[in-house]
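S1.2 Input.
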Amino acid sequence: MRQHVNPLSQFFQIPILLPNKSVLFSEPSSPIHIDIGSAKGEFLIELAGKYPKWNFLGLEIREPLVIDSEKKRIKLQLNNLKFLFCNANVSLDEWLSHLDPNQLKRVSIQFPDPWFKRKHFKRRVLKESLLYTIAKSLSVDGELFIQSDIFKLIESMTNIIDNSIYFDRKTLDGIKWLSKNPYDVSTNREIFVNKQNLPIYRAMYLRNSRLFINN
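S1.3 Output.
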């Protein structure tokens, strides 16, 4: 079950000053992977254990999930991982502005809330403004990975990215959709959908070098 919150409500429009990377990570200069909509956190917890020389940041708008994810992270003593409560469309830009150049290497947005009704499309997480925020800080050839089991949603997301000038879609033998998660780690939703033998649509984008944006 998806537990929705309205990201456009007044409460979620208040910017949150996120802690500096030196506060979040034991090695603050390491490359960073941000997962927007980290849910229960298992995806990043597994990645952080596999790649101790990377830093991982999970952003989630549902605060109870952040609290639970942080409990699991602390128990496992993963000092290269942190989960934070915020609306990424409101609070991420300021945090990214303090990173070292080319430090942000990967951003993932996986199974975001679909908001099926047309009048609710504006509540979807990936907007042109968030894409611009990501593009400003993502290193050249840095990765933007998206996936969903809702075709209409992933189609909307790819249209936003394809119509921008910041990213090039990565294909394999001309095939646009990836057959599996490129990080060899599955989210809870991904595991559930696979058990139902339902399709998952995945796309990988690389930050191109045709446009450099100064923060």
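S1.4 Remarks. The longest strand covers residues 138-148.
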